Amino acid sequence: MFLEAFTFPDADAEHAFFMRKRANCYTSFYPYQTLCTRLSRLDFEPITVLSGSNGSGKSTALNVIAEKLRLKRRSAYNKTDFFMDYVDACTAVQSETIPTQSCILTSDDVFDYMLDLRHVNDRIDTSRDSVFDEYYRLRSSGEYSDFRFEGMEDYDKLKRLNAARKQTVSKFTRRSLPKNVRTHSNGETALHLFAEVIKDGGLYLLDEPENSLSPAKQLELAAYIEESALSFGCQFILSTHSLFFLSLRRAKVYDFDENPVDVKPWQELEVAKTYFDFFKEHESEFEQEW
Fold first, then answer.
1. CA quadruple 66, 69, 222, 116: dihedral positive or negative?
2. How far is CA 95 from the centre of its chain?
3. pLDDT tens across 84-140, in order?
4. DSSP label of 154
5. Which contacts qualify for 223-232: CB closer than 8 Å, 24 or more apart?
6. Distance between CA 117 and CA 91 in Å, rounded?
7. Model's pTM, two decimal places?
8. Which of 59, 142, 160, 210 could form a disulfide with 242 if both were Cys (CB 3.0 to 4.6 A apart)?
9. Interior angle at CA 159, CA 156 and CA 165, nearest 5
């Protein structure tokens, strides 16, 4: 493990900060006043999972930890006026130096990655239309018969004319443009990003990794996380609503809906009970189906 524990400022420390800063002119002190009455310390295992409803503070905790450790981000995080003051008031207990490949990966990063791939392909497709037009213009015009080579600046134009005369439109286009970036479904693309980012021996903070992933793909990523922690020296801290990640083997699960935040078996979490009640209510329908 790289990170053993992390402490957050308690209510007394937050009060002392406000008195020192005389910060009573602000309407928002975020991330102050978010966790102080419910959480002062997190102790970690190779896999630690933060569970809780929206607004419970689990993503806040994850982003504060990432900032304190100066982990790499793929996209910018929106900081408030007091964010870095809050981070400075936190303490990270490390057992080893955090490896350089360590990072935080959020659901926004996954969406941005998918959009970037689409943008690249859109640009290539637009350029492909221009190459088609060029090919047919060169083939149909009298430019080749009228062409006069007068200097090296004409060399590229001569090559294009020769290529258009000798090649099919598909071959001419393939040789003129880069290939489209291979795209998959959103879930497959997201899974590819996780596999690309998670390297051996790193600390990885994952904020709601279930977004964009089907249940089957969530199971694939869950197995990948377990194997990376067990066999390849990785440590993971996740925030999630998904039972597939809450039930990761050997994971330590914190319930951010409790006051104070406490460790709890995943089966006792409110989200697990909600799913259990739902399937129990529809149990007879499953029996009829099978």
1. positive
2. 26
3. 999 999 999 998 899 999 999 988 888 776 666 555 455 545 555 665 566 666 666
4. G
5. 224/194, 224/195, 224/198, 225/47, 225/198, 226/47, 226/250, 228/198, 228/200, 229/46, 229/47, 230/46, 232/200, 232/201
6. 38
7. 0.75
8. 210
9. 145
